[in-house]
Each structure stands twice: as C-alpha cells, then as structure tokens.
Amino acid sequence: MDPTPGPTLLGIDVTWVATLLSAVATFAVLVAIYAATTVRNPMSRRVKALNERREQLKAGIAAAPSKRRAKLVQRSDTTDRMRSVLSSLKVLQDEQLKVAQLKLLQAGIRRREWAVAVIFGRLVLPIVVGGPMLYFVYGTDAFATWSPLKAYGLVAGSFLLAYKFPDLYLKNRIQKRSHAIRKGIPDALDLLVICAEAGLTVDAAFSRVARELGRAYPELGEEFSLTSIELGFLTDRRAAFENLAMRIDLDAIRGVVTTMIQTEKYGTPLASSLRVLSAEFRNERMMRAEEKAARLPAIMTVPLILFILPVLFIVILGPAACSINDALLK
After folding, report:
1. d(CA 212, CA 188)
2. What is d(CA 330, CA 240) in angstroms, rounded to the nearest whole number?
3. I need a labelling partner for 232 at 20 to 30 A (CA). Which of 5, 151, 166, 268 fits?
4. 231-288, pLDDT tens digit by residue?
5. Other CB atoms closer than 10 Å to residue 63's CB: what's the count?
6. Rounded distance, CA 303 to CA 270, Å?
C-alpha cells in the first residue's frame, strides 16, 4: 500500500523541502562549530615572517656589499623564467615593476619578485582565457543564435577581464586590508600615547603596540612590527616612517607619519599630537558608522521586497493554500 502523500504547494512536496532545509541548517551549524573551535592566532605566521625578515636584514648588514643584495632579495626560478620571457618580448619596464611592487606591498604581499608574475599574468591570461572563448564563439555553434554584437561583446569582455584580473585582485586585497587597518588606527594611537607617556622610545612603542593589537588587528600589528624593525636597522628613521605610509594606502596613516616625522625633527610633544589625531580618527569612525546606519533603511528595501515578504506570504498563506488544494482534489 502506498504511503499517504504529504502536503504539496505548487506541486512541490512540503515535507521534502523541509527535510532538505533542515539538512542544510545542520551542515551550517557544524561548519560554524568547526570554525569556532579551530580559531588560530592570526599573528603567529606574520610574526614568523617578520622575524625571518629581521634575520635577513642582519645577514645583509653583516655581509659584504657585493653579497648583500643577493641575501636580502629572495629569488625564484619561476619568476626568473617569467622575467626572461618578458624581457625577450620587450614588454618589461622598470616603471611597471615599481607600480606592481607598490601594489603588492599595499596588499600585504612582501615578495617583490611577484611583481613580475603580475605583469606576466596580464600577458598570459588574455591568451589563456580569451583564446578559448574566441574559439567557442566563432569556431563552434555554441553561440550561433547570438547576434554579432553580443558575440563580439562576450569575446571582448573576456579579453578585457582577463587582462584586468591581476589588477582587480590586488585592488580588492588593498581595499580589504586598508579597511581592516582603518578600524584599528584609533586604538593603536591611544596605545602609542600611553607608551609615549610611559617613557618608551618610538621603536619600542611601535613594537609594544604591535604585540598588544596583533590579535585584534593583525594587519596593523604586522605593519607596526615591520616599522619597529626598520627603526632599529635603518640609519634614517624618517625613511622607516615613509615606508609605513607607502605600504598603507590611507590618509590617516599619512597623517600619523607626518606627525611622527615632525616630532623626530622638531622635538614637539608626541603624546599630545597623537591624542589629537586619535580623537579625530575616532570621530571619523563614528561618522562613518552613522552614515552606514542612515543608509540601512534604503538598502534593506530591496531585500525586504524580494526575499522577506514572499517568505512571509508563504508562511501565512501556505497552510490555507494546502487546505484549499486538498479540498478541491477530493
């Protein structure tokens, strides 16, 4: 004897849909529990990389001038082959390398030789992605029903997107990293004020702040740790602060760097200047939060209409629709 069929809505078994949604919810709960129980310290890998960089700087300073560059710069066979290919094609320019290296630093990627990989990706990805797309559009009948304008737009878009993909990837990483650093600047400045009033030197203050903020803001802690290392090794302390402003694409960091340079040069009180900057950045962060809160009603209108209201109607009218459907089938 066949089992009694369950209630249906628009021809779909409601019991089967509920079972599927329950399985998805259970899987999401298991993933959340796994993510919560396997949290790792975000600063451990970064501190290890910075310590390796410290040892490289020590080795470079102790080595002979002819061997210093070879010890400081990490070489890779893959990037060397890419460099040779680009040089043979006459498409490798020093200005492009400098721009790519700056973007890599701002994205948190310390290996400058990857700048060659970025330029190589601009050359190879259009061939790898656009070439097959060109064949599928014009060499097969897969897009025969498309108009010539749409087919050309698809091919041109694939070539353009493949060419811009390395820059888009780096831009996305830079924006995410800058946003994460921006949130921690007021707290970092407050700690710098406390360290300065306690009598710590600038490099010791940066190192202390990096340790304290490493777990909450790992990106900012990494930058402060690297600045502390450079303050201890570079002969020109101003260069260390300028490197910090170069690695972080934020106006707030540039303001902090300008304040630190003026303090080093003219001997102005560091604590009072940083306290004013911290209050200004904290007010700016509050204004950004209020701006996002003010935009929230307009942003929630579309999801409310598309997702929340239909579900609400289904929950309210679903039982009545099932009862009417069963009554009409009898």
Report:
1. 9
2. 83
3. 268
4. 888 888 888 888 888 888 888 888 888 888 888 788 777 788 788 888 888 888 888 8
5. 14
6. 48
**What are the counts of helices (DSSP H) followed by strands (DSSP E) for the chain?**
14, 2
Q: What is the pLDDT of residue 250?
A: 86
**One-letter-per-residue 3-state SS of 158-194:** HHHHHHHHHHHHHHHHHHHHHHHHHHHHHHHHHHHHH
Contacts 24+ apart (CB under 8 A), 58-61: 61/233
Which pair of tokens denotes residue 60?
A: 């470079």
Q: What residue ranges in the chain does DSSP mark as E strands?
A: 8-9, 12-13
Instruction: Determine the residue type at 160.
Output: L
Contact 229, 57 (CB under 8 A): yes
Calculate mean pLDDT across residues 308-327.
Answer: 83
* Through-space distance between the first and last CA atoms of the chain, rounded to whole angstroms: 19
Q: What is the pLDDT of residues 171-212, one digit of tens each?
A: 999 999 998 888 888 888 888 888 888 888 888 888 888 888
Contacts of 279 (CB under 8 A, 6+ apart): none
Q: Which helix (H) or strand (E) holds 234?
A: none
234 within 8 A of 213, measured Cβ to Cβ = no
Contact criterion met (CB below 8 Å) for 9 and 321: yes
